[in-house]
Specification:
- With 126 residues, the protein is α+β, with helices and mostly antiparallel strands.
- Helix content is 37%, strand content 27%.
- The strands form 2 sheets. It has a 3-stranded antiparallel sheet, with no helix packed on it. Strands 3-2-6 form a 3-stranded antiparallel sheet, covered by helices on one side.
- Strand 2 and strand 3 form a beta hairpin.
- The longest helix is centred in the N-terminal third of the chain and has 24 residues.
- The protein is elongated.
- It starts with a helix and ends with a strand.
Length: 126
């Protein structure tokens, strides 16, 4: 019985330490570098959208939100509309995203990673 108590006395603190150490490792190497579009950030992407989006397709004021993934190779994939304004503007947004050139992928720990980007567009009545 004394041997079991001694074993538990030694083993439990060691196992508790290993769990705490493992949880802390999740947050190490959090050196994430965001994806870049055209050598810049979201400002360059917004300029691309403004140049290529056909605003005549928008039939009413409101908010359209799309989401897409920039994969490890910099390709735009998994395009979807998360907030629909109308079918025409949603279709136009998807068209523009499909013609989007490659991004410089996001990185974590020096390795490319895929990330999801949500992009809202607000339209006002003229």
């Amino acid at each position: 019985m004394k041997l079991i108590k001694l074993f538990l006395f030694i083993l439990l603190p060691i196992s508790g330490f290993s769990q705490i150490g493992g949880e802390g490792e999740v947050y190490l190497n959090g050196d994430r570098i965001e994806a870049k579009f055209g050598g810049g950030g979201m400002d360059n992407f917004t300029a691309f959208i403004k140049r290529n989006f056909d605003y005549s397709k928008v039939t009413k004021a409101g908010k359209l939100e799309g989401a897409f993934t920039v994969d490890e190779q910099g390709n735009v994939t998994k395009i979807r509309i998360t907030q629909v304004l109308d079918v025409e503007s949603a279709t136009e947004f998807i068209r523009v995203l499909k013609m989007c050139p490659k991004w410089e992928p996001a990185q974590r720990g020096g390795k490319p990673i895929s990330i999801e980007i949500k992009y809202p567009m607000v339209f006002r009545v003229k």
